[in-house]
Amino acid sequence: MQSYEYYAPRSLPDALEYLAENAKNCRIIAGGTDLIPALRNEDIHPAFLLNIMEIAEVGGISETEQTVRIGAITTFNDLAESGLIRKEFPILSEMALSVGGPQTRNRGTIGGNIASAAPAADGLPVFLSLDAEVELSSRRGKRNLPLNEAIAKAWTPAWGNDELITAIRIKKLPSGTRTAFYKLARRQAMARSRMTISLILRRDPAGIIEELRFVPGSVMPVPRRMEEIEKLLTGKVPTDELLDQAARAVGEEMVKVTGIRWSTGYKKPVLGNLFRIVLSQLITAG
Amino acid sequence: MKKRGIGYGSMFYGLGYGFSRTDIASATLEISQDGSIIARSGEVDYGQGSDTVFCQIIAEELGVDYSAIKLITADTDVTPDSGPTSASRLTFVGGNAFIKTSRSLKKILNGVAEDILGASDLVFREGMVFSRSAPEKSISFKKLAGRAYARGVPAVVTEWYNNTTQDVDPETGQGDAYATYCWATQMAEVEVDTETGRVEVLRIVAVTDVGKALNPLNCEAQIEGGVVQGLGYALEEEIKEEGGYVKTGTLGEYMIPTSLDIPTIEVHLLEVTEPKGPYGAKGVGEPALIPTPPAVLNAVRDALGLRIHKLPANLENVYHLINGAEAGN
Hints:
The complex is a heterodimer.
Chain A: E1 5-7, H1 12-21, E2 26-29, H2 35-40, E3 48-51, E4 61-63, E5 67-71, H3 76-81, H4 83-88, H5 90-98, H6 102-107, H7 110-116, H8 123-129, E6 133-138, E7 141-146, E8 151-153, E9 156-157, E10 164-171, E11 178-185, E12 193-203, E13 209-217, H9 227-233, H10 240-258, H11 264-284
Helix pairs in contact in A: 9-10, 10-11
Chain B: E1 2-14, E2 24-31, E3 37-41, H1 50-62, E4 69-73, H2 90-117, E5 122-125, E6 128-131, E7 138-140, H3 141-151, E8 156-162, E9 181-193, E10 198-209, H4 216-235, E11 241-242, E12 245-246, E13 264-270, H5 292-304, H6 315-322
Parallel strand pairs in B: 3-4, 10-13
Antiparallel strand pairs in B: 1-9, 2-3, 2-8, 5-6, 6-7, 9-10, 11-12
């Protein structure tokens, strides 16, 4: 059993003040689905625990003409139940429903999913595929950071320890864009992802790929868009031969990052297979 | 590509301990002056439903309502030794002990009732004790209990059921090692994704010889539970260790099926009376689980034309089977 000071403010300035004062030994808790087990296992030993779940400005889902802002303490179930999200980013709804089980979806938040920066995170790769930005607040002010610059390494955010992730911002997708999320796991619920595929696709009327964004999840220490694969297919009509070629390249790109590990014999071919299957379904879907 | 297959698994299983190993159960009944019954057994109901079946047996024997019985189990402070809760033996051995105990108690009460009613052809049914030939000669079970108490007859009875069997011939290994045997066959229908190695079980049909289903819903539920456990054994459960440390030490890492992983399970109860069993019943617990893994793995073989020898039949092991490579750790 550990002891630490616990603070659950209702105002954002109070929270940022507290964070700035105690930055070195403070951990931020939202849903606690990662943090509570880490405390129990004594993997972390914070002196201060800042609960942000009572702060209204850190929650809610809102839109402008161009963008959607999702508050950091939005839970996976909030996300899954949002009509706005289902309309603008169905890939986020699908991802949210695949997370853990009802209990973890009721507690786990998207801000926590990003800040934990777990290699097997489900939310992180989907937000990366959407070119999301994180809104960071501190006593020093507010700034937006592209998500692909926000994770330093596995389990480690790249922002300052006096900064709090207050929201995710995503630009709305051009009309005609299709999205897909696929999760391969050892069972249908309460399972860490073995691999995930996040795809954003837009084709012109002739079937040529205008834009493709692809992020594999649970295969690299920090998930990122596989731009090499996106480039390989963009500007082309996705024939079967081209898809097979891309599927092989996916595995090779993965190995460039991860090197050969015990799981490579499985993940290298199967990641390519999943990419081809999910992309083919997206292409033939309409 | 997704390939489908069908497979079967069959088993027979010796109930109880067999081979001259001690296999006993005691059971105690105590009757209060208001007719309520306190039953004691050392058997543990950890969800399989033995408490329900024991109360049914007592109610059946004494002709009283199930709700009149208070059962105390598995408390070494107050319950008698009934042997371990294992070997699919509770209904069979513990159940027989309660039949014996109930009949001994009934004999005592019957003597009192014969004296009060002046009849010797008494029937215990639906909370009443009455003469078969002259049903107007009757007394309620509750009243009878009060009269028996007033007369000071024994109100506590303990009986002992011995299910210990003969050993087999030490030279030949031949003989009848167990009191009885349970039989079951299951069919599994699976779909294997050859590009990921994922095995999805679409349907299980389970046919089990239960002797006599003392509680059919309970039997079905126990078989469903066994099937789910068998699915975990075939497809998910795996202990991984590294340098002497278990890496799969939580149920987040050591996989068992969730409710979303469970296919349609069709249960058929076969009732082939076992003369030694309570009302002809046999055990259900382990026979529910044993045929499931072979049925699933035979179905995988039917789908792929390849037999898997490394369990669990999870993503990696099945994928490497299809692609002819040895699986990793």
